[in-house]
Amino acid sequence: MHFHILTLFPEMITQALNTSIIGRAVQRGCISIDAVNIRDYTADRHNKTDDYPYGGGAGMVMQAQPVYDAWKAVLQGAALPRPPRTVYLTPQAPVFTQDMAKELAQEEHLILLCGHYEGIDERVLEEIVTDYVSIGDYVLTGGELAAMVVTDAVARMVPGVLSNALSGSTESLEGNLLEYPQYTRPEIWNGKAVPSILLSGDHAKVDAWRLEMAKERTRQRRPDLYAIYERTHPVTEKKKKVRER
Ligand code: ADE
User: Fold this and answer.
1) What is the distance in A from the centroid of ligand 1 to the CA of 151?
2) 48-63 residues labelled b (16+ CB within 10 A) or e (exposed)
3) What does the pLDDT read at residue 215?
4) In terms of CB atoms within 10 Å, which end of the chain has fewer, N or C?
5) pLDDT surpassing 80 at residue 237
6) Which distant-in-sequence residues (6+ apart) come within 8 Å of 133 by Cβ?
């Protein structure tokens, strides 16, 4: 999968995404991440990419021309027959979820557009953006951190990026449950023992315990998610009877 990130601060992207699991996935060729400097495409002789907002008001607005030409250059550079999905990171959008990450991971190419200042001229957004995505109900100084969050979450759903094929699907938020607690050596730390069931070697029991812990954790920490889980996993009569016993 190929990520193309349109930004005024490409070094922010390259520095952060060159490390750890995502960096190694790039090295192995599972994914590519191309940070495109919007300023390289300005037609302004002073390299300007922003201007005052029509109608007045505080701050500056990113101009349409450099953004559009940077976007066009991605299409041409990758010889794409039709424009790929283009995500604009903005707080004025639905909040990003694991389901969105999975869905975007099906794409071969993804363009992420980072805004700055008071935003981007609406006309170019109308022309190129297919998806508007926020990473939460707070305002960042620019879209770069949001683009990195989305890139990381999408990239790890691409086959081959995670070494353990299972770990992308068995963890927090899969099926609307948070992940169960994890333990590693030593068996006793600070006077606290690892739950004995994890040492039993009985995989069925371990799985059942983990599911119960995941449910309990979700109920306590994310009642909103737990309500969805309960709605989508109605307790059958048989299970109810077992529970009541
Ligand atoms: N740009 C500024 N704030 C943002 C947010 N919360 N999500 C996505 N992009 C943003």
Assistant:
1) 14
2) ebbeeeeeeeeeebbb
3) 97
4) C
5) no
6) 87, 88, 89, 90, 93, 94, 96, 100, 146, 150
